[in-house]
Specification:
heterodimer; A: mainly alpha; 0% strand; B: mainly alpha; three-stranded antiparallel β-sheet; disordered N terminus; hydrogen ion transport (chain A); cell membrane (chain A); transport (chain A)
Chain lengths: 164, 340
């Protein structure tokens, strides 16, 4: 059987050729190809993990934002409530102050009026007094000249007298 | 393989017009699966290849065109520097002055000719170098990008060898053996596929030649045993069995060293040769039954066989690489010898 007898020439040529092929392909094909494939796989892995990390960062940021927003809203509500309270308080205070001031001014006016009234009364009294004295003087003077005339004078004078 | 054969067959019938000689189917089949000193292109048209001989008297190089073998068995004799040579059944033989084959002297002549199989092997190698050279250039040019064209076709095969052959069988140490496994895989694959092409650049039976499978197996044998660690050798020479079993176990383990690559050699050789013989036999049925109607039966069967052979071409390349990786993996495995 020829076909199961290995030919020495073909064995040697196969050995030599295969070893050369192995060396050439290892240097020029397998190393660059496997290197590039490994590199790419590493890159893809890295990119995927980076994307995952970015996603996590994203959701973390979103959560943080939500929390901040919620907090801000609560703070706003508190501030608004405080402001409302303050406003009410200020308005109430102002009302009270205005009322007090009004009352005080009315009181002042009344005191002033009374004062003026008292001054005017005193003035009237003085005038009445001086007029009375004047009248009395003139009467007295006339009386001392002539009784009749004195009478006339008194009546004249009385006619003249007008309460100012 | 196919196209060359029928033409050859017809021409043979024309040659034997007078005598109406029967074509010797068995001889033709074996001629086609065997090696040759010329590449047949079509019919009688063939490329002669150089004959390189190491004789006991010195080197001898001449073209195989000088020793053409005619159909009638009359040999053309070439008078070399040291001896006279002639072809007999595609083998270079030394002939004496009377033109008779001198078997004694022939045994002293070592034939290192560039035969059909050597030429086809170089063709396959050239294809591999060109294809993978351009592929690796593409990786440099398109660094970090997605594979394209040739890359996207071959990259899965390369990754298949890495992820499904090397890593499961060898483990973390696989990187060192990747070039060998990839080269074995693609060498066998391209030559299997070239052997399936029925016309000129193919029609060879390289991976179905025992010399080639022997060489590949010896390479696997050497690599396996040179990478064997202490666990591997301990498993062979100091297995965990009672001492009185050693005289039986150690020879068995030593036979195991040889039998594993031997299985590789026989499996590849037998599978590819068997495929070629079946296809050639189916075609030969036309000549055996001497009717063209037989072609209606033969041709569908041949097409069917070729489809199977296409599968076998991939399968055998895979199995050879797989088992080579398995053997290497067993030799470099350092977990525990108890795992076997």
């Amino acid at each position: 059987m020829d076909i199961v007898q290995p030919a020495i020439g073909l064995v040697v040529w196969t050995l030599v050729s295969f070893v050369i092929l192995l060396i050439i392909l290892r240097k020029f094909a397998w190393k660059p190809i496997l290197g590039a494939v490994n590199e790419r796989e590493r890159n893809i892995e890295e990119a995927l993990s980076k994307a995952e990390a970015a996603k996590e960062e994203m959701s973390r940021l979103t959560n943080e934002n939500d929390a901040l927003l919620k907090q801000a809203r609560a703070e706003r509500d508190v501030i608004l409530a405080e402001a409302k309270k303050l406003k009410d308080q200020i308005v109430g205070e102002a009302k009270e102050a205005a009322q007090a001031e009004g009352a005080r001014m009315i009181e002042n006016a009344r005191i002033e009026i009374n004062n003026q009234k008292a001054i005017a009364m005193a003035d009237v009294k003085n005038q009445v007094a001086s007029l009375s004295i004047e009248i009395a003087e003139k009467i007295l003077r006339k009386q001392f000249e002539d009784a009749k005339k004195q009478d006339e004078l008194v009546s004249d004078l009385l006619k003249e007298v007008k309460l100012k | 393989m196919l196209a060359a054969f029928p033409v050859r067959g017809f021409s043979q019938e024309e040659h034997a017009e007078g005598a109406k000689k029967e074509p010797d189917v068995k001889e033709i089949i074996f001629e086609h699966i065997g090696d040759s000193h010329r590449i047949t292109i079509l019919g009688d048209l063939s490329i002669p290849l150089p004959v390189i001989l190491f004789t006991d008297k010195g080197l001898e190089i001449f073209s195989s065109a000088k020793v053409k073998e005619s159909e009638e068995g009359a040999h053309e004799v070439y008078q070399g520097t040291h001896y006279a040579y002639a072809l007999e059944k595609d083998k270079i033989k030394v002939v004496d002055a009377a033109g008779k084959v001198d078997e004694e002297t022939t045994k002293k002549v070592w034939d290192f000719s560039i035969t059909k199989n050597v030429a086809s092997m170089w063709m396959g190698m050239l294809i591999l170098i060109v294809v993978f050279g351009s592929m690796s250039a593409a990786y440099k040019k398109r660094e970090g990008k997605a594979p394209k064209g040739m890359q996207s076709f071959l990259e899965p095969l390369v990754l298949f060898v890495r992820d499904d052959v090397a890593i499961p069988n060898i483990g973390v140490k696989h990187t060192k053996y990747m070039p060998l496994l990839l080269t074995i895989f693609f060498f066998i694959l391209i030559n299997n596929l070239l052997g399936l092409i029925p016309i000129f650049p193919g029609a060879f039976n390289l991976t179905g030649n025992i010399a080639v499978t022997l060489t590949l197996s010896v390479i696997v044998l050497l690599v396996t045993n040179f990478s064997g660690n202490k666990y591997y050798w301990k498993h062979i020479f100091l297995p965990d069995i009672p001492f009185w079993l050693y005289p039986i176990m150690i020879p068995v383990e030593l036979i195991g060293i040889i039998s594993k690559p031997f299985a590789l050699m026989i499996r590849l050789f037998a599978n590819i040769t068997a495929g070629h013989i079946i296809v050639l036999s189916l075609i030969s049925l036309i000549y055996i039954f001497k009717t063209m109607w037989m072609a209606t039966v033969s041709v569908p069967f041949v097409v069917f066989m070729d489809c199977i052979e296409l599968l076998v071409a991939f399968l055998q390349a895979f199995i050879f690489t797989m088992l080579a990786a398995l053997f290497i993996g067993m030799a470099v495995d350092d977990h525990s010898h108890a795992a076997h």
